[in-house]
Amino acid sequence: METSVEPQSPVQRSYSPVWLLVTILAIATVTAFGPTERTLGENLRLVMLHGAWVWTGKILFAAAAVSGLAGLLLPRSIWSNLTLALGRAGLLFWLTYLPMSLVVQMQNWGGIFWDEPRWRVPFTFGVVGLLLQLGLWVINQPRVTNLANLIFGILLWWQLGGITNVLHPDSPIFGSNSTGIQVFFLVLLGLMVLAGAQITLLLFRSLIRQKMTAP
Length: 215
Description:
By secondary structure, the protein is an all-alpha fold.
């Protein structure tokens, strides 16, 4: 059983949520001044924001899986707290990405194709992920948390990697011939991942604080 709680590092103690607001402002600014394209026009900016958003969720779930594996191999509370924070941050991006996906469909396809695999499979994982995180919060067992996030991350990447697209293009960004669009997307993705890391840090710090003050 894990009973010890690691003290906060200087980074955890000194980090201010203001930096998250700065990152969000930077994301909004970069998106607003993003490139356009002949077919999609200004809608390309929302498409790239939507792409960076979902990739950030995928990266956070992958990091939660890796942390869960580390927690199973090296049972210390830091890993169970970290995988929990990463899983919750990933879920936050995932659940907010889903309505954005509907907006992108409306603007670019003229309607919503509910049976599109790129919508149906992520929606299923959103529901399962929400129920999973609620269950982990109720159960509150580190080894269960580690194992569950490991399995969820593996299944999510496996299922998304095997999706067959119908209307959704295979690789709308890196299938483009424009280097500028690709570089812009990578910058946006970097800012988005930074925001995800900042949210994870806030959640991680909250978990540590709760366990330190628990009776």
